[in-house]
Predict the structure.
Amino acid sequence: DVFEQPQHVGHKKIEFHISTDIPAVLQINSEKEEKDGKTLYFKYLSATTEEINNTGFGRIFPAPSSNDKMETEEEDDEIPSEFISRKDLEKNRLSREEMEKFSVFKNYEPGDPNCRIYVKNLAKQVQEKDLKFIFGRYVDFQSEVERNMFDIRLMKEGRMKGQAFIGLPNEKAAAKALKEANGYVLFEKPMVVQFARSARPKQDASEGKRKK
């Protein structure tokens, strides 16, 4: 003990002798802190590495499921850049609730599936290139057959003004185009996309009348 009971023997000189050696307790604590610091540092490094591996550059986080990932890769790999992306389609497309507010969707019926679609409620400034930009994404332009089947007929005059007929390679492509493009706002007007009606029954009916 440094301090003793006071005695009336005059002044007593007190000296402190501090050893340069670090006490064992302090040394253990110091090593523990250093170890904990290293552990935290390595945890930070591993977390950072894991985050980079998960996110990467330009990837979506959280990581998509296998089906979503395959669909996303398909969109990125197969859809040329000169056509609209699925993301932009969804971004500018009306929801079902919003469609109900427009009279053009009041009695909407998609019609009977076939490879031709009918588009109406088009703005007057819409051109064929605008429709090709949207519906060209459903055509494989590397295939000569699909290129030849892709057809756009935009009506700019008369009673059919603001309407268009678009021929796609097959019924599956037409169904996908209808699902993704119906309600898309083009030049501030939502497009109404349906399957085109076949004119054959009307022709048969008229021929039947002529025969009678």
User: Anything to note?
Assistant: The mean pLDDT is 75.
